[in-house]
Amino acid sequence: MKPVPPNQQRALVDRLVQACGGAYSPDVRRKYFISGPQWAASYQGQALFHAPTRSAIGFEDVIREYGKIGIGYWCTHDSDVIPAEQLGRDGQCEIVARIQKSLADHGLKCSMVTTETFFHEVFAAGPAAESPEIREYAAYRVRNTVDIGHELGAQFAVYWPGSLGYYTQGAIDETQSLRWYADALNAACERDIEVAKKKNRPTLKHCLEAKPFEPQAEILLPTSDAMLAFIGSGLLRHPEMVGLNPEYLHELMWGGAPRAALARALLAGKLWHFDINDGYRLKHDVDIGVGLVNPLDWLNVLVLLRAHNYAGPFNLDYKPPRTTSNYGVFAVSFPSAVDRFITLWEMAGEVREDAIVREATEALKAGSGVAAGADGKAIADANKELLTLHELIAHRLVQILLGLHRGRQYFA
Ligand code: XLS
Ligand code: MG
Ligand code: MG
User: Fold this and answer.
1) 29 lines ligand 1 (CB under 6 A)
2) What are phi and psi of 33, to 5 degrees?
3) Catalytic residue status for 80
4) According to the model, what pLDDT value does residue 319 have?
5) pLDDT tens digits, 180-206
6) 159-177 tens-digit pLDDT
7) Distance (Å) from CA 160 to ligand 1 centroid
8) Coil, strand, or helix at residue 74?
């Protein structure tokens, strides 16, 4: 192939996007509760060993581009849009007004706001550090985020505690740090009750997000299950206001099965918000776009969520790779992530309706009818052939994923 000079590269990307087909219209995309984070689109590709590869982009551009794609909801950290030194000051009101205008101009809603309690140097020892002034500052930040959330009409607040943990041993008492962290959440909920009353709005749904490591070596609340235990620990004054925002990859990072983590959250009635992305087990938080690594598992996850009528947001918390250009973020990265999600969601519907999956599942549940009181060996023998259906169901799932159930055939 001939070299592709810079001024022809976008045209090539656009032509190949078209050639991929399978894109949904913005109107179709808007039917789903899909949210686009400010920080995902504005991520510049930086990391500890990585210089940025993309130029900075502000919320006005992000909201406009999400609007064109058909992403109906937007969310943000407080400090993604308001410089830390202006938080809670006049500058905040002015920026919040500009955000409101951008959202209205481009037909988006703000679904969620979250407090950055991990990036700023003040949080070097985490949001629940020993020093009372750091903790008061953290409480101030979460209270202020509640205010912003109500101003922007959000329904959800998310908390990823970041550096709630340690690198080096011996400095902290974990039980004390957890009590202190609960104080911040209590401050947020109490502020919420006050503001919601004043504004005659429902309170926000406060959602905890776990991640097993990064940025600290040891994390006090590393998994969604740890978060559930924390919610039920008695430390929160309003546990009914606090639920979960599991992130798909964060569960894989500790070697868990995201689907099982989601199931446990569903059983607890705490699956309120869901960060969707992809990546690899027991590795870093690479935040790859949904379905690019584990499409079969994703299909299975969505079968579960459809079965339990999950109606919360699907938040595109991933990072366009460093190899994607500023142009590519909105030409390829976001529309393709949204479209893979919608396709997987539709396929999950097909799985639920599929006659073969249904009959196999029902047969498994019916059992063999062996006489009550039979011994273990007799029961095992009576169910032997039925249990083969487990593998048949898995095959059918893959057929649906690959489109083979529609009669597509391959001949050597
Ligand atoms: C970081 C988290 C973060 C949260 C919001 O790993 O995923 O982006 O979703 O603070
Ligand atoms: Mg996340
Ligand atoms: Mg992540």
Assistant:
1) no
2) -85, 70
3) yes
4) 98
5) 999 999 999 999 999 999 999 999 999
6) 999 999 999 999 999 999 9
7) 6
8) strand
